[in-house]
Amino acid sequence: MSDKNNTTDVFERGPENTAYAQYFVGQSYLNILNREGVFIGNVTFEPGCRNNWHIHKTDKGGGQILLCTSGNGWYQEWDKPARALRPGDVVHIPAGVKHWHGAAKDSWFSHLAVEVPGENGSNEWLEPVSDEDYEAL
Question: Is 0.90 topped by the overall pTM?
Fold first, then answer.
């Protein structure tokens, strides 16, 4: 599918991500694809948009898988170098790992966010990725 912003993605972009906007720098969009058994959301980031550092917490199991579908983005774990993301990339994020993900400065970016089932799961949203750290990518 092509949209007015020249991105191509298999899944519809969805509405503005107002439910989680406080945890993002910039504008994102969320199209929830599945809630039964495994949560799957298509998250689209405008250029320069990224989510805050966060941790997927569970007592057992859990975590998140990102399936990159369009554009160029970034993924970074705490105290590790950032990893560039392209369509077709897969990122497995174990529970308990502090991380962030988002678009490159000059590109829209979309990924499917798959929540790995776990016991007593929750997300802990933390500080924004600093402009200085993001600009250095």
Answer: yes
Q: How far apart are CA 97 and CA 120, in angstroms?
A: 16
101, 111 Cβ separation under 8 angstroms: yes
**Which comes out higher in pLDDT, residue 9 or 113?**
113
* Domains along the sequence of the chain with CATH: 21-135 (2.60.120.10)
Instruction: Characterize the bridge pairing of strands 122-125 and 73-77.
Output: unpaired
The two beta strands, 28-34 and 40-45, are antiparallel
44 SS3 class: strand
Show the DSSP H helices in 1-137 as ranges: 131-135
Residue whose tokens read 């689209």: 44
Compute the CA torsion angle 129, 98, 63, 48 (nearest 10 deg).
10
